Amino acid sequence: MAEIGHASPRSVVGGVMEDNWELRFPQSTRVYAKMLRQDAQVQSIMRAVTLPIRRSTWRVDPNGAPAEIVEHVAADLRLPVLGQEKGAVPRRRGRVSWDAHLQKALLALPYGHMFFEQVYQPGDDGLEHLVKLAPRLPGTVSKINVARDGGLESIEQVALEGQRDRPVIPVNRLVAYCFEPSDSTWVGSSVLRPAYKHWVLRDELLRLEQQTLDRNGMGIPLYKASATPEDPKQEMEAGQRIVEGIRSGANAGVAVPYGAEFELRGINGQVASPRAAIEYHDSMMAKAVLAHVLNLSGKGGSYALAETQNDLFVQSLQSIADWIIDTANQHIVEDLVELSWPEYDGPAPLLMADPIASKKELTAEALAMLVNAGVIFMDPSSENEVRRRYQMPQKDPSYMPVRNEEGEKNE
Known about the structure:
The protein has 411 residues and is of the alpha+beta class. Helix content is 38%, strand content 15%. The protein has three domains: 9-192 and 313-353, no CATH class; 197-265, no CATH class; 364-410, no CATH class. It is built from eleven helices and twelve strands. α1 packs across α2 (40-55), α2 crosses α9 (303-340) and α6 runs antiparallel to α8.
């Protein structure tokens, strides 16, 4: 049956489109780029969100696909196959690096969207190979073309300097990461959008704090003219130049006429400090991405509450990783399999990643408990890894422990 309705947001009055003009696409890309580039708290928030996902181990799950298809996908993406030894990554001469692609794909979180152009090339084996996933950064995208049904049609980029033609990339060449879209514009939702007002207000408060310290740190210069000046206007003008030109330093000083006075007068009463408001806005920016752990100040509190908040944060990161996996499987892996084997209709390999925060540093005590419990056995490769990790010398291959009659080692 034919589709009757549409998903065009342009015909909706008062819909879900952004009401802040600065944060409407494409102006929004400049604002979010400024937040990422200039603000330490924003940078800390984004690293807290992205680094655990990038640190996870990514693999290719065969998922019942033929071995040649699995090897083809793993080689083009430079990822190990599930069950292989760590580091056993197939070699390819293409320019695809999954680590680099993942780092760029996660830019969809602050910008709301991130596009990549797929570049294929036939190989010596007669198959199509993915040689490049070229990032098309949000700042270079001038227009996103959407079909009537809400599907992505193409993107247009700004023209290069000295050229008039704008590159248009069709959807069949694109990998589109659109984070939690609230409409059909394919602009997505930035994780920094709820933190924007706090970022603006905190920036103003930081400037106010700097002015307060600068103005009140040394005091206000005050010049009092002599009681009977010969030329009151001239003396007041001279005094004004003195107070405006006063600077601190090893040789700083002021010379005034007889009877005149100069002093640095401090303020009376208590000065309102914006520090508490600054810390509040910092904490709200972290809460926007559920990164409550960034707000822990070491002043005590409930460990159970902190653990619950951290669990919620890890779950949000796992949801982001699952979204990356789902998008990449649909628009990278399946496209690659379809191009190389157009008549194949079986299952395709799947990208997978270890659960977020599942990597734990193994201490010597924990290792000893696992060995004593019989969970793991110290085979030669495991023993060599332990020696390397704890900076111990390599085992002497000529050394053989001598056992007594009871089977115990005699050193």
